[in-house]
Specification:
The complex is a heterodimer.
Chain A: E1 5-10, E2 21-27, E3 30-37, H1 45-49, H2 57-62, H3 69-83, H4 90-121, H5 126-132, H6 134-155, E4 164-165, E5 168-169, H7 175-200, E6 212-217, E7 228-231, E8 236-237, H8 242-245, E9 246-249, E10 258-261, E11 266-267, H9 270-277, H10 283-291, H11 304-324, E12 341-349, E13 352-360, E14 366-372, H12 374-391, H13 398-410, H14 416-419, E15 425-429
Chain B: E1 14-19, H1 29-36, H2 39-42, E2 46-50, H3 55-60, E3 66-73, E4 83-89, H4 105-114, E5 121-128, H5 140-143, H6 146-157, E6 174-176, E7 183-188
Parallel strand pairs in B: 1-2, 1-3, 3-5
Antiparallel strand pairs in B: 4-5, 4-7, 6-7
The chains are: A alpha+beta, B alpha/beta.
Chain lengths: 430, 190
């Protein structure tokens, strides 16, 4: 019998953050491989943090990503403050959480409306979508602006914020300016609830992801900016124990590292957060989730858009609460004297768990740095999901299958710029 | 730096947008120009700096009668410091050539058009870059273009102005380039 090889190629995946390629090989109808080729060059952040002063990583690592810089700033601060055994005040912690809420709102709005919704409604991009769904796109823009407004006010600017620093903030935001912001957030809350209603009407393919889920968990609230690490297979550990469980490793086809949790692939991000922590959402967000068709857990990657919408509701509500209870931190930052030792931090970037670890000498010079972004942790599961999706749809023609592959990847909102960085698809059918 | 008193503009609402990343040398020509201009003297023109996120443009130029966007451009072969002028009139279904990276200004124009947020008239003044590497500061030929760029901006935002920019009327040296329906491209030679 003649062997049949089929190759699908996408040279540059659209609507993802960064640049990369996908190569799928199908031989005699069976999927041989599905590899995400991350060809963006390695960025060496961990290497050039060595020899820097302990005050510098928040600003330097902020530059890793233009979509989630607050995640990098916050996690770096958390790790170095732990190394220097400094505890920030509750007021500073709350202002950090408010800033992080701004990033969630802005990032989720961007991914939902600009990158993901066109998939569900059959449009090539948000511009074509806007032609038929103008009100929806306007809503998405308002949401993004609301998130940006928090980032600009608390962070100093919408991208790569300049106001956060080790120990807190250079300057505390005034109560009056935040009160002004709350009016915009009230409108944004209506928009977020409308978004849940909107995305819940989409047609979601049946899919149940069989993977370990990992997320930050906080005892008292839906984890964003702090907490411990929890997994769906019963792990509970602190940030300082993260490296004992999660191991990064190289794969030949990617400049981004992959990761395994005690030897097994795992997933971070909205599915993990929601499945592990949905009980801690606010009543309104839980109500929206239920109305949006979500149960207490969700393992269908196509429904991740509903979770992002629900999390947007939560982030806006949380921002409104933080503003209502705001006490300007005085002083705005706690001095962080250098100290020999190491410290770790974990937070929930919009795409998933972000881990930083720094080892300092007694002068505060960084001896080693380790940064594990969410997309690196997710790549192995994304590849496995792709193999399963292709295997279940080999009868599709190449164009349809390619589109499905891209859509499958976008379910995870990968940030290739964070992981090293994304997409170009090749499907080989043999 | 502009001199003289505030300006009078012939347009009801004017926005001047400096687009670009100052951390990539000549890409920062737009923000650099806005820094060099005196916003008080430019009243009532709204000045907006958009360093990274082109979606900011959608809000910045919504309902404007005139939006002037100052940006950097890459040309082959390059003539660093040369100023290109593009105009797009939104009375037609005009489209501008797409940007090579992510959601760029052309996407912002198309989306603004779809959302009916586009300014009535958009002028893009694009300065040919010499150096887009990481770092601060403009290259000498791009820095040298700032007076002419200032003059070009002031001419755009008000034919009637008491501001006296250095240099001659840029329009006298425009070189006509092929345009397309609803849009027009010219090169300003200095």
């Amino acid at each position: 019998m003649t062997r049949q090889t089929r190759q699908l190629r996408v040279n540059s995946l659209a609507r993802v953050e960064g640049e990369g390629a996908l190569r799928v090989v199908i031989e005699d109808g069976a999927v041989q491989s599905a590899e995400l080729h991350i060809y963006e060059p390695p960025r060496f952040f961990e290497a050039f943090l060595r020899g820097r002063q302990h005050t510098e990583p928040p600003d330097i690592t902020s530059r890793i990503c233009g979509i989630c810089p607050v995640a990098y700033v916050t996690t770096a601060c958390q790790a170095i403050e732990a190394a220097c055994q400094v505890e920030i005040t509750e007021d500073i912690a709350e202002l950090r959480r408010l800033l992080y809420c701004g990033e969630w709102i802005s990032s989720h709005a961007l991914h939902m409306y600009f990158l993901h919704i066109p998939d569900f409604l059959g449009y090539p991009d948000v511009i074509e979508l806007a032609g038929d769904h103008r009100a929806a796109v306007e809503r998405g823009l308002r949401l993004k602006q609301a998130g940006n407004a928090i980032l600009e006010l608390v962070g100093g600017r919408a991208i790569h914020p300049v106001n956060p620093c080790l120990g807190g903030f250079h300057r505390a935001t005034t109560s009056a300016s935040l009160a002004e912001l709350s009016r915009q957030l009230q409108q944004a809350l209506d928009d977020a609830l409308a978004t849940v209603e909107f995305v819940a009407t989409f047609d979601f393919p049946d899919r149940e992801l069989d993977a370990i889920l990992l997320a930050v968990h906080h005892a008292d609230r839906y984890a964003i900016d702090s907490g411990e690490v929890r997994s769906s297979d019963g792990h509970n550990f602190s940030a300082s124990e993260f490296a004992n469980h999660s191991t990064e490793f190289q794969v030949p086809h990617s400049t981004a590292l992959h990761a395994a949790l005690d030897g097994r692939s795992y997933l971070t991000g909205p599915l993990a957060r929601y499945t592990l922590n949905s009980g801690q959402l606010s009543p309104l967000a839980r109500e929206a989730a239920t109305a949006g068709g979500l149960g207490p857990t969700c393992r269908n990657p196509f429904r991740s858009i509903v979770i992002r919408a629900v999390e947007t509701v939560y982030a806006i509500e949380e921002a409104l609460r933080l503003i209502a209870e705001y006490r300007p931190p005085d002083p705005p930052a706690i001095p962080v004297a250098p100290r020999s030792g190491s410290g770790c931090g974990v937070t929930e970037a919009p795409r998933g768990l972000l881990y930083h670890r720094y080892q300092l000498d007694s002068d505060g010079m960084i001896r080693t740095a380790a940064i594990v972004p969410p997309t690196s942790q997710n790549l192995a599961v994304i590849e496995r999901d792709l193999r399963d999706v292709v295997a279940a749809n080999t009868s599709m023609d190449d164009a349809a299958l390619t589109a499905l592959c891209e859509r499958t990847i976008r379910n995870y909102d990968p940030c290739i710029s964070c992981s090293a960085h994304f997409l170009d698809l090749t499907v080989v059918r043999r | 730096m502009t001199t003289g008193n505030s300006i009078r503009t012939r347009h009801r609402r004017v926005v001047l947008i400096g687009l670009g990343n100052p951390s990539r040398r000549d890409d920062g020509i737009g923000p650099s120009l806005l820094t060099a201009l005196d916003s008080e003297l430019l009243r009532p023109v709204t000045l907006v700096t958009a360093t990274r996120d082109p979606t900011v443009l959608l809000e910045a130029w919504a309902n404007a009668d005139l939006a002037v966007v100052v940006d950097a451009a890459v040309c082959r072969p390059p003539t660093p410091g040369r100023i290109h002028r593009y105009t797009t009139c939104f009375t037609s279904d005009a489209r501008v050539v797409g940007n090579s990276h992510g959601f760029g200004i052309s996407d912002a124009i198309r989306l603004a058009t779809a959302l009916n947020r586009a300014p009535r008239l958009l002028v893009v003044l694009a300065v040919e870059a010499a150096d887009l590497s990481v770092g601060h500061g403009l290259s000498p030929p791009v820095a040298a273009a700032i007076p002419a760029l200032t003059a070009a901006v002031l001419r755009e935002i008000g034919a009637s102005t008491r501001v006296s920019p250095r240099g001659q009327d840029p329009r006298s040296d425009w070189t006509e380039c092929p345009g397309r329906t609803g849009s027009d491209r010219r090169i300003l030679e200095y």
